[in-house]
Every structure is written in C-alpha cells, then in structure tokens.
Predict the structure.
Amino acid sequence: MDLSTFAPTPTSFPRRGRAITPSNTTDLPFPAKAVIVVVAGNVVVLPIENPDNEPITFTGCEMGFVVPYQVRRVLATGTTATVYTAES
C-alpha cells in the first residue's frame, strides 16, 4: 500500500505522535495539533497564539484527555501528567 496518497488535511487525524519533555523556555519542534494525556495529572500549555506569559492550566486531567488547543509549548512548572503530541 502506498501511504503517500493519504495527504493530511486540516481536519484529518494526526499522522505522528511523540513524547513531550516539558520545558519552561523551549517550544515544541513542531506545533502540536493536539496534546494527549497518557498518564493522569496536571498539564500547563502555551497555545500557538498565546504569549509566553499567558499559559493555560488543566488540573486533574485523566488519561485520554485531549488539550483543546493547538500547542507550541508544554511547561515544566505545574505539569505533572505525561503527555504526547498529535501532529499532522
């Protein structure tokens, strides 16, 4: 099967995922279409359009929770969950 014929679209499922190492200063290598919690806890993110001083905190996230923003950074301070990206 030739997988190159399955071109991504804005509404298609993500095509790649990777573990995120939270950082207070470094953005993800590629903006994440979604961030998915794989081990429960808190998640602190910077959406793509938010400035550095406007993070959003999600408290008590269960496994399977999907952050409802496109994310450029997951902050180390306050993040206790294990999270993965969902990328196009």
